[in-house]
UniProtKB/TrEMBL annotation:
Coiled coil residues, start to end: none
Top-rank taxon: Bacteria
Full protein name: CBS domain-containing protein
InterPro entries: CBS_dom (IPR000644), CBS_dom_sf (IPR046342), Diverse_CBS-Domain (IPR051257), HD/PDEase_dom (IPR003607), HD_domain (IPR006674), PAS (IPR000014), PAS-like_dom_sf (IPR035965)
Organism: Alkalicella caledoniensis
Matches recorded under NCBIfam families: sensory_box
Domain CBS: 7-65, 71-134
Gene3D superfamilies the UniProt entry points to: CBS-domain, Hypothetical protein af1432, PAS domain
Domain PAS: 138-183
Keyword terms, alphabetized: CBS domain
Length: 479
């Protein structure tokens, strides 16, 4: 902090030939205890204070007294300049025990531009020291935050010189901050780097995937720094994380999905079945419990196909859990029933924003289940067990005909669970988990539809089980 930040420009000044008594009156009117003597060029030639004036006129009572007769001459005066630091000024005040210091224009000019008082300098100096302490504290906190970040952080200035390089950046890049700070950010490409583009345009770039030389993939954000909220870009902040594992997992999941789709396509009897499933839409919606209506939020193109794929995924999970080893659970029958169970389904033509009552808009499941069973039977000649599973998968057990084969009941119960979980996955983006204990299956389902949030326990052989809301009380019953 410099003198010009607390310079007082309004001061008493007088010519050398001025009457002492006239100057005394001016100082009295202005409430000032000192005045400065300047020549015709406003150059400082001397200084007067209340103590020097009264000490002098006590011994010299002549009315003809002039200022130059009793002023402190320039050679005995301490003075400073506008660009003098406050600490140096404080040192002068302390060393020479003075209360006021004139401020001269420069080291090459005696022109007086103002003065500073010990009281004001002390106040500004203390405020300045407190500000420095606060800034140091803020900088310390900022440094602690930078050092604790898991994300790498690099800051470059307008000249692309690296100014910050946090510990996480050292770990992620394998480089040392001491070797990088002060060095220019390198760009091995002939084209402008993203940092340079952000610097010139002032537009941030987020989630930029960057391939490293060692094969790792970083996700990088580039954010421009601006001076005091202005449009002027003074640097760029780069934050980055290593997403190699996530990227690898994404690739693996993508390949897995492709392989699953290909495997599923091979199980389809012909292209007509695939076409029918992919041309049947499903819908995502928001449920209004007060009105018992739903609002369509998304149309799932190829929803029928996705529903069958999700059924097969759940079935695969159940197979790994050992459920397919149970007597009465035939894996081949289950898979064929899954593929054909919605072949006769017909959906209404809805669009995003439509509000409907589900019971009015959608056909009751037993009807399309019957059509699907007929198609599987008459056109594709499927086994009687497959046809029965498809025909009755929307029936409660009380609704089943008396001649329904009892040996199919465990498989029917398992199929209904799979169909319900796939609907939750396909239409409601649900989170589902499950476990089994012999023939006993326990399912946890959580999604945006509170109506469907549940814990289901079911014995596939006896049909006995219980269902409760998540966190609710179990009520025993028979499905």
């Amino acid at each position: 902090m410099l003198v010009n930040s607390c310079l007082e420009k309004d001061f008493v000044k007088a010519k050398p030939e001025a009457s002492v008594f006239e100057v005394i009156e001016i100082m009295k009117e202005r409430g000032s205890s000192c005045g400065y003597v300047v020549n015709s060029k406003d150059e400082l030639v001397g200084m007067i204070t209340s103590s020097t004036i009264y000490g002098f006129i006590t011994d010299n009572l002549s009315v003809d007294l002039t200022i130059d007769q009793m002023m402190i001459p320039i050679k005995e005066i301490r003075y400073v300049y506008p660009d003098t630091g406050l600490k140096n000024v404080m040192d002068v005040f302390t060393k020479y025990d003075v209360k006021y210091l004139p401020v001269l224009e420069s080291a090459y000019s005696f022109k007086m531009v103002g003065f500073v008082s010990h009281k004001e300098i002390l106040k500004h100096y203390m405020n300045w020291q407190m500000q420095i302490q606060m800034e140091n504290l803020q900088e310390k906190r900022a440094r602690e935050i930078l050092n604790s970040l898991n994300e790498g952080l690099i800051v470059v200035d307008k000249d692309l010189i690296i100014r910050e390089f946090n510990p996480a950046a050292e770990i992620l890049t394998g480089l040392k901050a001491q070797d990088r700070i002060g060095k220019r950010s390198s760009n091995i490409s002939s084209k402008p780097s993203i940092t340079e583009i952000v610097m010139s345009t002032g537009q941030a770039r987020y989630n930029v995937e960057t391939q490293m030389q060692d094969g790792r993939v970083f996700l990088v954000n580039y954010v421009p720094m601006r001076h005091n909220g202005s449009d002027k870009v003074t640097g760029v902040i780069q934050t980055f994380t290593d997403m190699t594992k996530i990227k690898t997992l994404q690739v693996q999941l993508s390949k897995t999905k492709e392989e699953l789709d290909k495997a599923f396509a091979l199980t389809l009897p012909n292209s007509k079945v695939e076409y029918k499933l992919k041309s049947t839409p499903e819908y995502r919606d928001e449920y209004d419990s007060d009105k018992s209506t739903i609002k369509i939020t998304e149309t799932i193109e190829g929803g029928g196909y996705l529903h069958v794929v999700n059924c097969l995924k759940v079935a695969a999970d159940f197979n790994e859990m050992g459920l397919m080893k149970l007597i009465g659970i035939n894996k081949d029958t289950l898979v064929e029933a899954i593929i054909f169970h919605d072949l006769g389904k017909s959906q209404p033509n809805l669009k995003v924003g439509d509000v409907v009552t589900p019971e009015e808009a959608f056909e009751e499941g037993i009807f399309h289940a019957g059509r699907s069973a007929d198609l599987a039977d008459k056109f594709y000649g499927k086994d009687e067990d497959v046809v029965n599973i498809i025909r009755y998968h929307h029936h409660t057990e009380e609704m089943l005909p008396k001649d329904f084969p009892t040996h199919l009941l465990p498989l029917l119960r398992l199929f209904k669970v799979i169909d319900g979980l796939s609907a939750a996955l396909t239409r409601r983006s649900a989170k589902v988990t499950y476990k089994s204990e012999g023939s006993r299956l326990i399912v946890f389902e959580e999604n945006k539809h509170p109506k469907y949030n549940r814990v289901l326990e079911l014995d596939l052989y006896t049909g006995r089980g219980s269902e409760k809301p998540l966190g609710g009380k179990i009520e025993d019953g028979v499905n």
